[in-house]
Known about the structure:
Layout: H1 18-26, H2 43-48, H3 50-53, H4 60-66, E1 73-75, E2 88-92, E3 96-100, E4 106-110, E5 119-122, H5 128-138, H6 150-156, E6 165-168, H7 174-180, H8 182-191, H9 193-214, E7 222-226, E8 230-231, E9 234-235, H10 239-259, E10 265-268, H11 277-283, E11 287-289, H12 299-306, E12 311-313, H13 318-321, H14 325-341, E13 344-345, H15 358-372
Parallel strand pairs: 1-6, 6-7, 7-10, 10-11, 11-12, 12-13
Antiparallel strand pairs: 2-3, 3-4, 4-5, 8-9
Amino acid sequence: MAKTITPCRPRWKGTMTDRERFNNQMHYRPVDRCFNMEFGYWEENYQQWPIFTENGITNEAEANQFFNFDRIGVVSGVIWMNPPFPHEVVGETETTRIIRNGDGLLAEVPKDGHDTIPHYIKASIVTPDDWKRAKEERFRRDDPARRVDVEALKRAYPPDRDYPLGVHCGSMIGVIRNMLTFEGLAYATYDYPDMVEDMVETACVLVEDYLDQVLGQIDFDYATGWEDICFKNGPIISLSFYERVIVPRYKRIGKKLHEHGIDLWYTDCDGDVRPLLPGFLEAGINCRFPFEVNGCAHPAELLNEYGKDLRIMGGVDKIALGKGPEAIKAYLETLVPLVERGGYIPFCDHRCPPNVKPEDYLYYLDLKEQMFGMG
């Protein structure tokens, strides 16, 4: 039985449905007000913020209801490894556990469970023989789990719904980085380029198989993806590899989306994405999400450079949120022209960290409503 969440604040006023508002805003058309959403919180927030602990809020879905954000949904299928590697503890130290995760990586993680990037020790897939075995066992196109219950989706997401719905288009290289590790991918693109390209092709085909089942059956408003292949100094792969191997696969997916009228596609990628933007846009990935300011730039920089070819969702500097009301107000004021021009939805540029005081976060939500709602 689903938990009943009592919102702590009223919804922003409006005259459009959430679906109308989202589509208009992201297509540079007039809106009643800004689309109101956020991109979640660190796990620690659910244990440390009294506003969450005292109201039984334990995850992002509950938080979205609690803060009464506009509704937005995404549908996905089994488009990558299945089954994953078994998750198991293989050893421990005084302060850490050594686990094998679902990607087959041996990783050292803290026993206290705090959020941190794991220390990866060894990958299960290193050589072409490793990949051949894993592909046969875990990437079968005829895996029954990859068949979509389209009729159930139609019932769950009727065409007359009042909120935007996206279709998830997976990852062409980020999930491969997850399996090989950052260093492993860097070596493999030079030592075993054919293996890595076959992994990318496998990722693309599995997404295409999924899209062939659902496109034209469900009325989607946008497409999503996930990569996380950049850090503050740029991409973790060479641009030549990206342009030769990855962009053509994006194009294949983009072609299917466009054939079914989906012309808005964001891919979640942290860090400095600027070197990848021409390839993204060429393939049809025309929206950035969640757009990390400190790892890249102020969103105005790219929106001014690319004009209406680009959209951005996110881009509210989480560092400013942690500095208190004055810094929050100063930063939001820089976003006013972007919201007014369209193609931009402001929210915290990654999951909100626990150093942000709950009272400052509520101030931020109030100020967003004053500046970007109907007031």
